[in-house]
């Protein structure tokens, strides 16, 4: 095929296969999940930790160091990980099971569905590398995990934005009776929401982080961080952007969403670090349709329904429309 007819993919502009989502100079906190779990477990001896050969890469190594007798290394066997966690929960323990999101969802789905969720067992599944937070290609990019897990009855799903969300979510999901799937940011995790006056994570609740008259961005996970950055950038162009953060994907805070959309003539953009298929965007759309609430416009700013490229995260975030600059440009174009 000639070069005039074949479409060539743009070359990567960066080369490092980094896995950090923090911008240069951004405030970060190290291992918020591991530290919060260690603190909570100090007064809750029923908490145990399990992982599938990924303690260091899910920050569970801190728990293993603090409570070696309560830590279980299951090896690279995610189905066994979930089965064992279910068995421990039946004995009255509160297992925190960690792995990468692709392995916890794709490889162990049947065990989560049948062993844990069907019996409403008190297992907390915490999975790193959600969505496009790694450059290692489709084998490691969990771009469909929320779609898969939303279909499991009774499973609570959490997609935290930053280190503060994670630290505050850990004791709340531990205290929640029933299975939980939480997307996990690990390592040097950005700290963003501490700058929002009065913000606290509340399981099952969405929070309006800022208001604006032109656009409402409904977001979760790291895309809430991006939405706040974009809102700041567009304010310089006299574009008012509101941000509604939905860290709990299921059960969704439908009341907060309806209140933020109803009677306000503004564009609604749902931004998520997930495929546009089956995630927060479709959950919000369903909510609005069922309650007959119609925004001025409705658009999805998520990842495409495709197998994504491998490469450096800044390049990939630009390519797939979830970086600060590209997301801002997309919103401005939609308003034009």
Description:
- It comes from Pseudaquabacterium pictum.
- Keywords: Thiamine pyrophosphate.
- This is Transketolase.
- Belongs to the transketolase family.
- It is a single chain.
- With 336 residues, the chain is α/β, with parallel strands linked by helices.
- The chain has helices at 32-41, 61-66, 78-90, 101-107, 109-117, 145-150, 163-175, 222-235, 254-261, 280-290, 313-319, 324-335; strands spanning 28-30, 47-51, 71-73, 94-100, 124-128, 156-158, 180-184, 188-190, 207-210, 215-219, 241-245, 248-250, 267-275, 297-303.
- The chain has a 7-stranded mixed beta sheet with strand order 3-2-4-5-7-6-12, with helices on both faces. A 5-stranded mixed beta sheet has the order 9-11-10-13-14, with helices on both faces. Strands 1-8 form a two-stranded antiparallel sheet.
- α10 links the parallel β13 and β14 (297-303).
- α1 (32-41) packs parallel to α7 (163-175), α3 runs parallel beside α5 (109-117) and α8 crosses α12.
- The longest helix is centred in the C-terminal third of the chain and has 14 residues, at 222-235.
- The two termini are 38 Å apart.
């Amino acid at each position: 095929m000639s070069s005039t007819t074949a479409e060539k993919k743009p070359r990567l502009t960066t080369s490092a296969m980094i896995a950090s989502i923090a911008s240069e100079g951004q405030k970060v906190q190290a291992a918020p999940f591991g530290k919060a779990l260690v603190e909570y477990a100090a007064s809750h001896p029923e908490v145990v930790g399990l992982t599938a050969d990924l303690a260091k890469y899910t920050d569970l190594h801190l728990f293993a160091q603090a409570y070696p007798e309560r830590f279980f290394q299951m090896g690279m066997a995610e189905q066994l990980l979930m089965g064992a966690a279910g068995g421990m929960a039946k004995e009255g323990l509160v297992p925190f099971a960690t792995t990468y999101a692709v392995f916890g969802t794709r490889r162990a789905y049947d065990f989560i569905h049948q062993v844990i969720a069907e019996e409403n067992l008190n297992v907390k599944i915490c999975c790193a590398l959600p969505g496009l937070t790694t450059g290692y290609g489709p084998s490691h990019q969990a771009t469909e995990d929320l779609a898969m897990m939303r279909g499991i009855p009774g499973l609570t799903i959490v997609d935290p934005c930053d280190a503060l969300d994670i630290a505050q979510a850990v004791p709340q999901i531990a205290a929640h009776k029933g299975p939980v799937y939480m997307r996990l940011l690990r390592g040097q995790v950005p700290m963003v929401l501490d700058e929002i006056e009065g913000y606290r994570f509340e399981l099952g609740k969405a929070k309006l982080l800022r208001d604006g008259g032109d656009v409402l961005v409904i977001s979760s996970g790291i895309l809430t961080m991006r939405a706040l950055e974009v809102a700041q950038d567009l304010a310089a162009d006299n574009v008012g952007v509101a941000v509604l953060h939905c860290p709990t994907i299921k059960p969704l805070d439908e009341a907060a969403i309806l209140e933020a959309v109803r009677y306000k003539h503004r564009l609604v953009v749902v931004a998520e670090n997930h495929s546009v298929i089956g995630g927060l965007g479709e959950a919000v759309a369903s909510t609005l349709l069922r309650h007959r609430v119609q925004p001025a416009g409705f658009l999805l700013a998520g990842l495409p329904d495709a197998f994504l490229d491998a490469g450096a995260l800044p390049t990939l975030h630009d390519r797939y429309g979830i970086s600060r600059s590209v997301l801002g440009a997309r919103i401005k174009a939609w308003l034009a």
